[in-house]
Structure formats: structure tokens, C-alpha cells
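writing this on my phone so excuse typos. first protein, seq and then structure
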Amino acid sequence: MSATARKSAPLPDDIRDMKGGTPIVSLTAYTTPMAEMMDAHCDFVLVGDSLGMVLHGLPSTLGVTMDMMIMHGRAVGRGVKSAMMVVDMPFGSYEESPAQAFRNAARIMAETGAAAVKLEGGVHMAETIAFLVARGVPVMAHIGLTPQSINTLGGYKVQGRGDAGAALMADARAVAEAGAFSVVLEKVPATLADEITAAIPIPTIGIGASAGCDGQILVVDDMLGLFTRFKAKFVKRYAELASDGEAAIAAYAADVRARSFPAAEHVFGDADPKSNA
């Protein structure tokens, strides 16, 4: 399903049907202009709770709220036409009970226009995933490194090495059986990611996993070099916009202090007060 061939955004079932085919392309998006830039190139865009760190300066995703996700979801929704939009459910919005998860997922979808929500967790979240799917809420699952659980995982560590691989495989099978239409595998050893991809009937979306996954996702600010607080091993920088932007700001500041900006072409004359030229 190429971006150029589509006339409308795919639905969750379309993403599910891409299992084993052309790799699924995805990035995170948080603003309308960024969503517009990636719309023609991505199969789906994720309004990720990573916005708390890359846009709001939070130390983790734990402080992100429903209102923040909805605000950014609305912004991204204005910028996508060809790509499907998925919105993260923030920490504390779904863990208490399936009923709580449904209320908040329904609010996200109603107020943003998202086609699906994403939530973190494997076996222990299978009941909630099934509850949501049965009530018309498509769910993208997320297993492996789950950033909302860093305090119990002991930090941003690779998940599923050694004997822990069996538990991660069980998580993948559980979310697939519960009705998730796809699953993000984050920071999982490549061999295990390939085994999971072969074992389950829904697409795997890798981030720090394997090129053998059914698709890939990155945080757009990481990929563009806008977020520079740290760089994960799995990030490939396709640009260095932070350094380019700082250089541009420094040049602007120098021009202002030298009174070389604004120049004549940037100011208005008084010959015709009705003209904007």
C-alpha cells in the first residue's frame, strides 16, 4: 500500500493486512506542520506521549496528561489526509480497569478523530485490549521496553534477553489474541523480534528491534536531530536540524545587534499607506 497510490487514509484493518508485505512506515507527530510533512510518506502517524520529553521538557512520559494528548492529537489531525492517525493513551488513563480505559479511549477518538489508540503492556493488558476492541476501539499494543513502566523496569534497558524472551513472546501472543491490530516492539533483541514477527498474525512495528519487523517507527524529533538531550542506539539521524537551527538563530541575533536586519527590503515605505507592499 504505497502512499502515492492511496486516495484516503488506511484503517486499522488495512494496517493489519500489511502483515508480511511492504514494510509499514511510521513516525511520531505532534504538530500540524510536521504532520503535513510526513503525511504523504507514512502509513500511519503516532501522536506519541514522547511529546512530554521532546516538546515539553519533561524527564519522562509519566507526566503527560489526557489534555496534552488530545491537544496535540487535534493538531496532528488537521495535518493528515493520507496517513492513519493513532494516539497514545497516557500513563494512568487505562491501567485501573477496562472501563476506565474505554472512557478515556472513547474521549481521545471522539475529540481528535484518531482511528485507533495505543497502549503499553502485554499479558496483563490483554483483558483491557479485548474489552476496547469489543466496543469499537481499535488498539495498537506496545511491548518490550514500555516507557511508562521505566520505574519498575529499572530504566531504559533492552527487554527480552535470555530467559525473559519467553515472557515477551507470551506478551506478543496475548495482545494478538486479544484483538490488537498491530504491536510495537521497543528495544527488543533482533533475533527475538524476528521470532515474534513470525509467530503472530498481526504486524510488528519495530523501534530498536529488527529490520525484519513488519514496519518501523521513530520519534521524528530524534530522526531529524531536533531532540539532542540524548541519542538512543536505534536512532538514525537523517538531519541535524537542532544545530542548523541554532546557527540560524545566532546569525539572526548577530544581524539584529549589527542593525543589518531588518534591511530595506524587509520594511515598509510610507508612499502608499494603504499598501501592504
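second protein below, same order as before
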Amino acid sequence: MQKKLAATLACSALAVSSPVALATDVFHLEGIGAVSRAMGGTAAAHDVGAGGMLTNPANLSFGPNDREVMVGLDLVTTDIAVRNKATGDSVDSDTHNKNRGPYFAPEVAYTQRLGNLTIGIGAFAQGGLGTEYGRSSFLSRATGGADTGLENSSRLLLLDIPLAASYKLNDALTIGGSIDAMWQGLNLDLLLGADQVGSLIGAGRATGSLVPVLGGIPGLQGAHFSLTKSKLLGSGVDAWGVAGRLGLAWQVTPSTRLGAAYNFRSRISDMEGDATLTAISGVVGHIPVEGKIKIRDFQMPAKLVIGGSHRVTTQWLLTADVSRVFWKDVMKDIKVAFEANAGGNLNILLPQDYRDQTILALGTSYTLSPEWTLRAGARFASQALRKETLFAVIPATPTKHLSVGFSYAVSPASRIDFAFSHALREKMSNSSLPNTSAPIEVKHSQNNATLNYTLSF
């Protein structure tokens, strides 16, 4: 009962209502909270409110108030299209089911200063991804052009619950850290053509007692995995784990601050749940096999961020962060382990081979009056995905973002922060087995909006 309640709370914190890819820096949002998001995701060396727990917790000490509570909402919408370069057929990720986007992802946090110590706790949507291509596009055709009527879709949700602390050692140096509980849940419907299955077997990436069974099916045209709960809340497989980070901030001069933080690689259990493996035969039709499935060792990467902020005038602030995200260590393969209820197993390694990612984030803010502050930013990242391992259902490709936002002081004790971020359209093609059968071209752009309300008392 406790596990069911925890999973329900995690899903509720990441409620969805139609299809979208929540990811921007691969599976991560490009800044946590409206202040950071509006300033290009910068957060290493200036106060961004409670969202700073997930970048550099040392900056919690620089908040203007002794106690704050923050509630917020992220809204993410995307424009994703996939084209078959051989035939010209195309499909958009759109609303075909109950568990896709736009994502409405709530945020909540509390911080309190106790002398030189500041503590905080929160719950944030860290990121994810999602697509919904339906049952009738070219992605649902098996080898030989057979229409299977089977879905191709995805939804990955990431929830981070940090317990953070910051301590001011002296007027110049502040240190901080956090311990995070993490939850992730995955829905996936994926069709692999017979040529993709054969490529995986030939490369030693498909093993187990069900491999010869599949090979012996007459007229095999493909295999389809379904591990999806078709509900507003719920994931086919999910798991809990831990992560954490350490950070420091150095006030070089009254106008200039430097900051650095290291986010540790997550330690999340294998995601587990029920699944159906359906073999598609040109002779006998669909052959569904029920069973249990695990997505093994699906982790979030370590990250190093170094940044600075400089107050040009009392009104004008400039910020810059440089990050290195170590995707290569965690995203070599997607490891799938299927155990049929009637006996037999199938283990698959779907190649990903991500590169480490370097990100430059730039931001600025200008205080117009005691009530109004305006913000803007930009974010530029290297591409972590390789075109030869691109999946249509995992198009986490955007690398360039522009953002704007503002803060409005409703009263001396409360304010509203807003940010809008646009991911510029990214295009990537793949014509390589085993991750695609048809040569595909994926186009992906995205709009994110964030609204926070902060109350001090």
C-alpha cells in the first residue's frame, strides 16, 4: 500500500493530459523554476529561489527572506514530426490517448534560514519525454508493409524530491548540498520490424530462450513491445532511487559571485512492470505473449556546472553557466529484460551511445521598479544523441533555447515569477538498423511556460 501511495503521489506531481516531449537538455528541463528558466537556465552563481536546490544548493543562503514557500506549474508543449524519407509518409506526435501532454507539472518547495544555515525541501518535475504517433502511421507497419494497428508511443516522467542545506562559512564562501529521492516512470509502445529484430540478433543484442521461438514463427514480420498504462496517471514500469549534489558559492566582490556544483549520477532501481510482447506473423497474424518486464539500470547522469554572476548596476545583473553532462556513462544501451508468464525470456540491448554534453547558458535581469523585474536568456548545447541510434519515440534532440520572463511583487511578502522558453526546431535523420527500419527524419521544436508564486512569512 505504501508503494502504491508513493507512486500515485509521484504521478500526481507530474500529471499529463495529452502528447509531448518534456525533455530539452535530453531528458532534463532547461532550468528549474521560473527565475532560472527565464535566464537561460543559469543558476550556479545567483539566487533563483527554491529551484536552486536542483542546480547549486549553496545559493539558498542568498535568498532575501528567512522563510519562503513556493508553488508553481510547468506547462510544456511540442511540435514533433517524423517523415519516412523513402516514401514521403509523415506522422505528427499528437493526441491519440489519455496519458500524453501538454505536460502540467506542479512544483512545490519550502526554505528556512536558521542563522548561517538555510534548509529546504521540495518536489520538482526534473524532466522526461513523450511522443504519441497512434496506430495507423508508417511507424506501425511491419516488414513487408503490413499494417499492424499497434501503437508507437512513449512517456518518461522524472520526479526529484530534494532535501537541501546551505551554510554560510563567512562573508565570502558558502557551501551547500542535497540528498534527493527520485522517481521515474515509463510508458512505451514500440514496433520493431523483422529486419530490426534480425539486426539485434545478428549483433548479439537479442538473447534468451525466446529468440529461437521468434525465429521459428512462420512469416515473421516484426515484434511489438507494449508496457503502457493508458491512464491519465500511471506508468507501465517505474522505480525509486536516490541522487544528490554538492555546491559552493564565492562572493568575489560585492558585485561578482562565482559558483560551482556537482550533481552525482542517480542510483535508481530497475523499472519493473507488466508487458505484452506481440509477434507479427504474415501467416497466423498477431501472437501476444504476456509477461513481466524490466528496464535495467536506466539512470540520470552526473553533471558539473560552473558559473558566474555580475551586477553591472544595482538594477542590471548578468549571468553565465557552463555545464558538462556525462550522458556517455549512463546511456550506452536501453536494457530490456522480458520474462514470459508461460516461460521463456528475452533480453535486448537497444543501442543509444549518447555523447557527453556541453551547455552554455546566458542570462540577464533588469529591475524596472520595486514591483517589476524583467529577464531574458539563451542556452546552447552540444548534441548528445547520435543520428544512427535515433528512435522516433525518443526524439530528445533540441539544443538551442531562447527565454524571457518577469517577476511581479504582489506585496512586500509575495511575488509572481513567470518564464517562457522556446526550443528552436532541431532536425535529425536516421537510416540505420536496428533503431529504425525505414529511413526517418525527425523535426522537433518546443515551448515551455513556468509560473511560480512565492510567499515569505
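The chain has one domain: 2-456. thats all i got for now
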